[in-house]
Design brief:
- With 216 residues, the chain is α/β, with parallel strands linked by helices.
- Helix content is 30%, strand content 22%.
- The chain is built from 7 helices and 7 strands; from the N terminus they run H-E-H-E-H-E-H-E-H-E-H-H-E-E.
- It has helices at residues 22-32, 48-55, 69-79, 98-101, 119-132, 168-173, 185-194, and strands at residues 37-42, 58-64, 86-90, 105-110, 133-142, 198-204, 209-215.
- It has a 7-stranded mixed sheet, sandwiched between helices.
Length: 216
């Protein structure tokens, strides 16, 4: 049966609700090897990776700008998960929140999300995560050389000023109506390092997504 991918509020398709990619699997392996993990899932979508992380033994705080509270309530009911094990918070990730950071956070995952922030906001968020997350960051961003970035108006603009809507055909194809800051691999590594993170590994997928695993 063909998989159905959903999009919410112009922020692209929710891939994680249907499958785990290689970065998701690296994150799950890391969590499963821990005695205890409390993970922040920013830009969670409908909770696909959050559920997998709970199954791997983590306590998860899932955050998204869209209201997925009823979706997460159903996930908890269907899977017999306690509220304390899987928490959903609706909020703007660029603003940060004590609600996410009030208790110890061991790790964070930010998949297909940070390009929806202008560069200064992305840098601020990553710097905050560096201060509050004890161990690892698993993160991905859409690259300028991906199919999403075809005819992207910001390609020739300095990354600190880059925040543009996609070309109409790409916006429709990939269900992305919001402006984005797309990155080259070198720009993404520089962003992570400027915020304090040490990039352990960074690679580009065949599709053009740039993925990284980071530590202190």
């Amino acid at each position: 049966m063909k998989k159905v991918y959903y999009s919410f509020t112009g922020h692209g398709v929710d891939v994680a609700s249907q499958r785990a990619d290689d970065l998701d699997r690296f994150c799950l392996h890391h969590i499963a090897a821990k005695h205890s993990a409390r993970v922040l899932d920013l830009g969670t979508g409908a909770g696909g990776q959050s559920l997998r992380m709970v199954a791997a033994g983590a306590h998860v705080i899932a955050v998204d700008s869209h209201d997925f509270e009823s979706v997460f309530a159903q996930i908890r009911t269907d899977n017999g998960i306690d509220d304390s094990k899987l928490q959903f918070v609706q909020g703007d990730i660029s603003a940060g929140s004590d609600q996410w950071m009030a208790e110890k956070i061991t790790d964070a995952i930010v998949q297909r999300t940070i390009h929806y922030l202008p560069y200064p906001a992305a840098l601020s968020l990553l710097s905050q995560l560096y201060k509050n997350v004890e161990d690892k960051l698993f993160i991905s961003v859409t690259g300028t050389h991906s199919a999403v970035g075809v005819e992207y108006a910001g390609r020739a603009v300095a990354v600190k000023d880059r925040f543009f809507s996609l070309a109409p055909e790409q916006a429709q194809t990939f269900s992305i109506s919001q402006p984005v800051c797309l990155y080259s691999k070198a720009e993404f590594v520089a962003l992570l390092e400027t915020s304090g993170w040490r990039v352990e590994r960074c690679w580009e997928s065949a599709f053009g997504n740039i993925k990284a695993m980071c530590a202190h």
